[in-house]
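During the reporting period the student researcher (J.K.) took over the structure-prediction task from the postdoctoral fellow and processed the backlog of single-chain submissions. One of the processed entries is reproduced below for the supervisory committee.
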Amino acid sequence: MDSSYFAIQLRALEIAGFDASTPDFRVKYPIWAGILVLSLISHNWPMVVYAFQDLSDLTRLTDNLAVVVQGSLGTFKFLVFFVKRRRIGNLIHRLHRLNQKAAEKAPQLEKIERENQLDRYVSKAFRNAAYGVIVASALVPMLLGLLAYVTQGIFRPTTPMEFNFWLDERQARFYWPIYIWGVIGVGAAAWFAIAADTLFSWLVHNVVAQFQILGLLLEKDKGSLHLTQCIHHHRVALELAADLSSIFAEIVFVQYTLSYLQLCMLAFRFSRAGWSAQVPFRASFLFAICIQLSSYCYGGEYLKQQSLAVAQAVFDASDWSQMAPGRRRLWQMMIMRAQKPSKISAYMFDVDLPLLLWVTRTAGSFLALLRTFER
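J.K. obtained the following structure tokens:
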């Protein structure tokens, strides 16, 4: 594998404080990770207070609660990763070992490289969108302040996020600490999301690679040793998929339980006229959230379809008319097992493309409800 293999995830996890180079998946930078979590917590409650100060101002309410939801999700993802760090580390390094073994054969290496290339497309898209949110939160307040200084002669300080902090940001000695802390808070939410979501994408694509390698194995001669090898590899791929689903079950459940509200609140901001320093930040934020939700549903659907494809691969690769009845029944049992797809399950629902459609429809319904309240 080339230098880009697992590079995005390794860097993202390191920024979030984790060491993915060992199976222990330990917290490599505990102080830095603590600062990131503290920045999220310290921003959430002032934003909630600020949002509920005037319930008649729906723009302020939805603007702040959408960011609070993302900050809470970032904190939750970090806590889940911390609690399940050994399981995550074991899954990552188990896939590394399987990939290294498969890379010894050119056709299998091609499958692995293709899936990792697809992962890089997805991971880079979300990573760049998330970094766009950080850049917007950092630059737009400065640019608007400079614009006010040039046109009016007065530097009007604005913060990356609109809320009531316990310090007066209109004073220069307080403005810069609040501004820097606000950018760190946005960065913390983005970095935790990048670490969790790009890792999910990498895991999905590399588990899918194991199902595709199984398809290559099925093309060999149908000896008894080959049958045992195929069944074993199929079982390994199913175990990897089940472990992946178990690790991300809580994250996916919380994320999609709140996602339609988050989309609704962000979309509501752009359904109304008006400009503020928060608009570029909210626009980039909405774009990143759409990519985030789509990547999870795409990954779940992709895993489901590729695991189902094993049944057709077994059927196509077998000469049923020449096969002994006993061996035929064994291959039929493998087909029957493959007809039950591997899924990313979140307790009450499965993560796939129909879920994305449901989230979009529900967000649209809540948006219509908010517009009704506005009137």
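The committee noted the following: The radius of gyration is 24 Å.
J.K. will present the remaining backlog at the next meeting.
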